[in-house]
Design brief:
The complex is a heterotrimer. Chain A contains 8 helices and 18 strands. Chain A is of the alpha+beta class. Chain A folds into 2 domains: 226 residues, 3-Layer(aba) Sandwich (Rossmann fold); 101 residues, Beta Barrel (OB fold (Dihydrolipoamide Acetyltransferase, E2P)). Chain B has 2 domains: 60 residues, no CATH class; 210 residues, MetI-like (MetI-like fold, Orthogonal Bundle). Helix content of chain B is 73%, strand content 0%. Chain B contains 14 helices and no strands. In chain B, helix 1 packs across helix 13, helix 4 runs parallel beside helix 7 and helix 4 packs across helix 10. Chain C is mostly helical. In chain C, helix 12 packs antiparallel against helix 13. Chain C has a single domain, classed as MetI-like (MetI-like fold), CATH 1.10.3720. The chains are: A alpha+beta, B mainly alpha, C mainly alpha. Chains A and B meet through strand 6 and helix 2 of A and helix 8 of B.
């Protein structure tokens, strides 16, 4: 169990601001946040690479805040494919074992096994520079895992890979780390899909703080704050300012918004959040088509309403001409409401409890 | 147009090549001349203009009143240059690594100031230091000794090593050191096990510059040594001012510039790989 | 407490402080003394050595001469070095050989080559006048006239140090990005315009670095002069370093030469700083 309390850093572009959390062994924690949210800084602070101004790090009740990096029993996979350029792939993976005092034969045997697991069994004698990016990252992963360290950290490990390799390695990832049942696994990413797919628990960071955490599906369905909703939605969620009056929901321009099934708060301003699945073609709202783009087998259309901008997503590749008018409907069951302070105040009739 | 440009370029390159080679060729032919071939005016082609003789070369290896001993100065030069370069390279590499990876603070003095202190030593004209060096070595009893010269040359070469290596290390990602430490190395272990083995190109460039500046120094050797210790540049200058014949001078000169002329081949290799550009900025 | 970070820095720092800083401070002290061949030791005579420096015409003339020599020789080295680097840059046939060849002079010991150059410039026995006479020129008094001696020193300096410029500039050219050239080619810019609008601006940082390094080195000129002309004829090629050397280690006026060398050092630092600032403004400021 890894417990961090009030981690705070200074002297850096991105600083951590009072981060506390308890991590349990054998689970994968995905840390989701935009660039600059403090994900890397959190990992580096855990590692002892960034000095803390306040805070403690405890591993199994033992305070390791002041422990030198080499004695922390942690390992880290960087976003850039960093391996020891002067060592062969096998020696790269054997390196941490040798530092633990294992003899050469044993280190090589274990390293060889690990490399076979990550699918590099035939490249043992190559230098890292002779491998592809994906293979280099596999070496880094093997080196991080081979020590069976208590904490395995991966800092956007797939970010620098091209699409195909990223998908492939992401699919394999749970299998690769399956043996590390003793380890706390921390995995940072900027991609909501990746975070939700890989994490047992998802931690959302913003501006150097943890702003939400929990099971990925729950967090996605009920983001506690507007910032959280914004970070975990991809394609982006649209926020439109509105207000409630006489138990009716209005967009800012005075357009009545659909609110069937929603329990509206008292009169006053609210922020209406529309995920792309809240908007469908044909209906009562008129909008102008802005940009339209393709993502996989879906089309993402940016819409300009009188009251603001929102994004609609339709299945299949369809041509929408920019500048044309379109009518759409907005589905109230996918609307979320946020209070002016950012808190989620969406309540639905059919919700139990 | 293109043709004219091409012709001009070829003429320019050819002309410069001749200019570069000329003193060497002249020295080479002169080293095989005898008194007749020199005092009768400039001669160029052996067997045609003059009858070659090997006395220029043999005189360098004969001892006694007729001979000029090149072996002693050559060894002295080599020893001083190699030791000073090696020490400078070791100290300079360590300092450069420290400056590129750790934060030092001494009052208002920061890393960049320390780096500047090292590099700014190159601005110091040798003459400014020559007099205090002279007096200092006299106090130490190290005038006219190899030890004294090595000491002075370290001051001369250390800034070069720090300069080249600081730049080199700034090009090695910090993540590499960090990874070594997470893998169980101490900061010093990380340097020796991981950074140093990956620094060979930088070390070669820095070492080469040290060798060049050490081997080619004349001024300090000239002011701080007399008879016991004699480096090549000083010996040739003292030969020059006595009545040494041109053939011996030429042979002597060729032998003393030969080792480093070979270094040009290594420099070229690193330059075309693009490794040098980092070391320059 | 000594932590591991001090293991890296301290040995070099202490070595340099011990070898450089103390002697330098000692020089400052000596410059206020009358230490000379008749009376050695540290007395205190106030600033009279400095007063003497400011009245010493020979010193100020040597500084002027040094500036002229440095500026002309470094400009020539830069122009020729850049031209050579450009010519060799994309040269495939024999390019490798030429690169090695062009680098050799900077690897050779200046005084040793000066000994050779002395024979080359020899008025009656040297090859230069011999070749010139074939064209009906000469004999040129290379080392025995003021102008001839100055030009001889210049030629040797250019021969020795153009390779250094060539090395830096070629290394710079090799690592230039390709995209601007593509853009220039698409715009239909010719060789000349491509050079002035793409190559030269991109090379500005290296140009500044190279010029400053060479100016620093050139301002110390002394070896070549000592062997080629011994500062002569008269004082026609006497540089500041050489003059201070004569006062200090030949006339043994230790106190006075210490004052001279400190004035020289301060002037050098100030003028090199100004030149560096000016170069930065000229070459970098223009393009932004």
């Amino acid at each position: 169990m890894l417990q961090i309390d009030h981690l705070t850093t200074a002297d850096a572009k991105v600083t951590l601001d009072d981060v506390s959390f308890v991590f349990e062994a054998g689970k994968i924690y995905t840390i989701l946040g935009r660039t600059g949210a403090g994900k890397t800084e959190l990992l580096r602070a855990l590692m002892g690479l960034n000095p803390l101004t306040v805070g403690t790090v405890k591993l199994d009740e033992e305070d390791i805040t002041e422990r030198p990096i080499r004695a922390r029993n942690m390992s880290l996979v960087y976003q850039q494919f960093i391996n020891y350029p002067h060592l062969s792939v096998l020696d790269n993976v054997a390196f941490p074992l040798r530092r633990q005092g294992k003899d050469k034969a044993e280190a090589h045997a274990l390293a060889g096994q690990m490399l076979t697991t990550v699918g590099l069994g035939e490249f043992l004698q190559r230098r890292p520079a002779q491998l592809s990016g994906g293979q280099q990252q596999r070496v880094a992963l093997a080196r991080a895992m081979v020590k069976q360290s208590r904490i395995l950290m991966l800092d956007e490990p797939l970010a620098n890979l091209d699409y195909k390799l990223r998908e492939q390695l992401r699919e394999e990832f749970p299998r690769l780390v399956a043996d590390n049942v003793e380890s706390v696994i921390l995995y940072t990413t900027t991609e909501p899909r990746e975070a939700m797919e890989l994490g047992n628990t998802m931690i959302v960071m913003h501006d150097g703080r943890v702003i939400a955490s929990g099971a990925p599906a729950d967090l996605f369905a009920h983001p506690p704050t507007k910032d959280t909703a914004s970070v975990i939605s991809d394609p982006p969620i649209s926020f439109i300012s509105g207000f409630v009056r006489d138990n009716c929901l209005y967009f800012s321009e005075g357009h009545l918004a659909p609110s069937e099934g929603l329990l509206l708060p008292a009169d006053g301003p609210v922020t209406i959040a529309l995920r792309p699945d809240a908007i469908e073609p044909d209906g009562a709202f008129n909008a102008q088509i802005g940009l339209s783009e393709f993502s996989g087998s879906q089309t993402i259309i940016h819409l300009d309403f009188d009251f603001g901008r929102a994004i609609m997503m339709v299945d299949g590749i369809e041509a929408f001409t920019a500048g044309n008018d379109i009518s759409v409907s907005i589905r109230s069951e996918h609307i979320m409401l946020f209070a002016p302070d950012g808190g989620n105040i969406t309540l639905r009739n059919n919700q139990n409890g | 147009m293109n043709k004219v440009y091409h012709t001009l370029k070829t003429i320019f390159l050819l002309g410069w090549s001749i200019f570069v080679v000329f003193p060497f060729l002249w020295a080479l032919t002169t080293s095989f001349k005898d008194a007749n071939a020199i005092t009768s005016g400039a001669t160029y082609i052996p067997w045609v203009d003059f009858e070659p003789s090997s006395q220029g070369w043999t005189s360098l290896f004969t001892t006694g009143s007729q001979g000029i001993n090149i072996i002693g100065p050559f060894i002295d030069s080599a020893v001083v240059t190699l030791i000073a370069s090696l020490v400078s390279l070791i100290l300079g590499t360590l300092a450069a690594y420290g400056l590129s990876r750790f934060e030092y603070r001494l009052g208002f003095v920061k890393n960049s100031d320390i780096t500047f202190f090292f590099i700014s030593q190159r601005i110091m004209p040798p003459i400014v230091l020559a007099i205090p060096f002279f007096l200092m070595l006299k106090e130490l009893g190290a005038l006219d000794t190899i030890f004294g010269l090595v000491l002075v040359y370290i001051a001369l070469l250390l800034p070069i090593a720090v300069w080249v290596m600081t730049d080199f290390f700034s090009g090695i990602p910090k993540e590499l050191d960090e990874m070594a430490m997470t893998d169980g190395c101490s900061p010093i272990g990380a340097f020796f096990r991981v950074i140093l083995p990956n620094s060979v190109p930088g070390l070669v460039v820095a070492g080469m510059f040290c060798l060049i500046f050490g081997w080619n120094d004349f001024f300090f050797a000239f002011t701080l040594t007399f008879t016991e210790t004699q480096l090549l540049p000083v010996s040739i200058v003292s030969l020059n001012s006595s009545v040494t014949p041109w053939w011996s001078l030429s042979a002597f000169a060729l032998i003393s510039v030969a080792p480093l002329a070979c270094v040009a081949v290594i420099v070229e290799r690193y330059m075309s790989r693009g490794t040098m550009s980092g070391a320059i900025r | 407490m000594l932590s591991s970070k001090h293991f890296f820095l301290l040995p070099a720092l202490l070595t340099l402080v011990a070898i450089i800083l103390f002697p330098l401070l000692f020089t400052v002290r000596v410059s206020f003394s009358s230490w000379d061949v008749f009376q050695s030791g540290l007395d205190f005579i106030g600033g009279s050595n400095y007063v003497r420096v400011f009245e010493d015409q020979r010193f100020w003339q040597s500084l002027q001469r040094l500036s002229l020599l440095s500026i002309i020789s470094v400009s020539l080295q830069y122009t020729l070095g850049f031209a050579l680097a450009l010519a060799v840059w994309k040269q495939v046939r024999g390019g490798r050989l030429m690169r090695v060849l062009f680098l050799i002079p900077m690897m050779t010991t200046p005084v040793v080559m000066s000994v050779i150059w002395r024979t080359v410039f020899h008025e009656s026995l040297g090859p230069v006048n011999d070749i010139l006479s074939a064209f009906g020129v000469g004999p040129v008094p290379w080392l025995s006239s003021a102008t001839g001696a100055f030009i001889s020193v210049l030629i040797v300096e250019v021969w020795q140090w153009t390779p250094f410029m060539f090395l830096l500039l070629l290394a710079g050219l090799v690592s230039l990005p390709k995209e601007p050239y593509l853009a220039a080619a698409i715009d239909g810019a010719g060789t000349w315009r491509t050079f002035w609008q793409v190559t030269f601006p991109l090379m500005a940082p290296i140009t500044i670095g190279a010029l400053i390094i060479r100016l620093i080195e050139a301002s110390k000129i002394m070896d070549t002069v000592y062997v080629l002309t011994s500062g002569g004829p008269g004082t026609a090629t006497e540089t500041s370093s050489y003059y201070i050397y004569i006062r200090g280690l030949r006339d043994f006026q230790i106190g006075y030469s210490a004052a001279l060398s400190l004035v020289y050092l301060v002037i050098m630092i100030i003028s090199l700083t100004i030149i560096a600032k000016l170069l930065l403004r000229m070459l970098v400021g223009k393009d932004e």
